Automatic annotation (TrEMBL), chain A:
Family per record: Belongs to the snRNP Sm proteins family.
Sm domain mapped to chain residues: 3-77
Localisation: Nucleus
Sorted UniProt keywords: mRNA processing, mRNA splicing, Nucleus, Ribonucleoprotein, RNA-binding, Spliceosome
Coiled coil regions, renumbered to chain: none
Presence of keyword Transmembrane: no
Species this chain originates from: Blattamonas nauphoetae
The UniProt record lists the keyword Ribonucleoprotein: yes
Protein name from the UniProt record: Snrna-associated sm class
InterPro entries cross-referenced by the UniProt entry: LSM_dom_sf, Sm, Sm_dom_euk/arc, U6_snRNA_Lsm2
UniProtKB/TrEMBL annotation, chain B:
Family matches, as CDD domains: LSm3
Any one Pfam family match given in the protein's UniProt record, by short name: LSM
Native source organism of the sequence: Blattamonas nauphoetae
Domain of life: Eukaryota
Chief site of localization: nucleus
Protein name: Snrnp sm protein
Length: 97, 110
């Protein structure tokens, strides 16, 4: 499984904040993720912003992975040492051909 | 030519120290894991933070990140560019790889 897909798999049912390339910001509970990093969020809240696309009524959102700019996570949800080790291993596998 | 190449790679495999050396561009980033890095992004955005993970797409995970966005406005009266900066912080941020222009790592790690 790709590194970041497995990271987000470990964050299922956790609250994440997604900042999209159109500057829309949504916070919600992560339900599913796939290898494109498409996300499905529930209990969505949007941040009030000027000239924001209106998403206030949306409670369930599917986000296409390619439109994501950032995903803000809770630091306590991520085991950084495991992630660093996995990164080292995965990159070596990719480059050692 | 191909024979020479095979000899070169087999000698690298025999010597374990070489596997830690920089052979691929991504190795430089790998050696910066756990260090603070600078990331330049599309859309006049910059990030500074501690690198904890990345993949071959340059998807990146940073902690204690500071984002700087530079707004550039052109003043037609004075013919000057007016720049202003806003900064935001995030305790843990995932950055999608297609935005990344460059990653600068500390000299120590390189």
């Amino acid at each position: 499984m790709p590194l970041f897909m497995s990271l987000f798999q470990s964050l299922l049912m956790k609250k994440i904040t997604v900042e999209m390339k159109n500057d829309a910001v949504v916070t919600g509970i992560l339900q599913t993720v796939d290898h494109h990093l498409n996300l499905y969020l529930e209990n969505v809240e949007t941040r009030e912003q000027q000239d924001q696309i209106h998403l206030e009524a949306a409670k369930f959102i599917f986000v296409r992975g390619s439109t994501i700019r950032y995903i803000h996570l809770c630091a306590s949800d991520v085991d950084v040492f495991v992630l660093e080790d996995t990164t080292r291993r995965d990159i070596r596998q990719e480059t050692d051909i | 030519m191909s024979e020479k190449h095979e000899i070169a790679t087999s000698s690298i495999q025999k010597e374990p120290a070489y596997t830690e050396a920089i052979r691929q561009p991504l190795d430089t980033v790998r050696l910066a894991l756990g260090e603070r890095v600078y990331v330049k992004l599309r859309g006049e955005r910059e990030l500074r933070g501690k690198l904890h993970g990345f993949d071959q797409h340059m998807n990146i995970l940073l902690s204690d990140a500071e984002e700087t966005i530079t707004h550039i406005k052109f003043d037609p009266v004075t013919n000057e560019e007016i720049t202003s900066k806003t900064t935001k912080t995030s305790e843990m941020i995932f950055v999608r790889g297609d935005l990344v222009i460059l990653v600068s790592i500390p000299r120590r790690a390189a």
